[in-house]
Amino acid sequence: MNTYRLLSGMVILLWGFLPGCREKDDIPPVITLKGSGYMTTELNQPFSDPGVTATDDSDGDITSRVYVESDLDIDRVGIYNHVYRVTDQSGNTANPLVREIEVVNGSRQYEGNYNGTDKGMFPDADSLAFSTYLRFDSTLNHRMIFSGFGGQSGWVVMADISGGLMIIPFQVIQDSLGGFNIQGAGTVSDTLIEMNYTRETETEILLRNAVFNKIPKG
Q: Rounded CA gap, 206 and 200, in Å?
């Protein structure tokens, strides 16, 4: 009697281990996003991925097995994708999930068309009205670029924004007269930019004031 019970138990145990006798696992795992499916991150800053969770009906929590395929470039403005994938121990692959990540310039709200007034402070007291376009740089955060600065179509001037300040770093502008150096500083808000700057050539230094009023869209 004891021998029969022992043999029966061994048969049942072996039955559970035989591959052909086990129930086939053909149910794929499930990936769940943590956080939003669309996120923004600032240019030149590390992206903090909230991640995902992954569960399987047989293997349980397999989040540690998740891997990410990504084309994210934090040093260039654009829209990128994180693709999350996972496979369970039986070889079943989950439907991949995608998180869209947009890399943005942190000062992009200042981009737009402006009406400008440029006035001489020293030595001349002339005044010039013009229109200009201010765009954000696609590779350097908080860097903005004026096209047509000072009413001259060929003058492209870079400016850096920090809080409510706009800094024009020292730069060389080339024109038909040979070029000049420019630098300055001022204040910036959503609709108004005001600055003082110097324009230096080989023969003179000009001190000027520029005011830019943003033109509403539409």
A: 6
Three-class SS of 137-165: CCCCCCEEEEECHHHCCCCEEEEEEECCE
In a structure prediction context, what are the per-residue pLDDT tens digits for the chain, which is 218 residues long?
455 454 444 444 444 444 545 578 899 999 999 999 999 999 999 999 999 999 999 999 999 999 999 999 999 999 999 999 999 999 999 999 999 999 999 999 999 999 999 999 999 999 999 999 999 999 999 999 999 998 888 899 999 999 999 999 999 998 877 789 999 999 999 999 999 999 999 899 999 999 999 999 87
Q: Supply φ then ψ for residue 58, to 5 degrees.
A: -105, -40
Assess contact for 170 and 183: CB atoms under 8 A: yes
Q: Which tokens belong to 171?
A: 């730069």
The residue type found at 36 is S
Q: Strands 60-61, 67-70: parallel, antiparallel or unpaired by DSSP?
A: unpaired
pTM, two decimal places: 0.83
**Which residue is associated with the tokens 């955060």?**
141
Q: How far is CA 210 from the centre of its chain?
A: 31
Cβ proximity of 139 and 122 under 8 Å: no
Phi/psi at 65 (nearest 5 deg)?
-90, -5
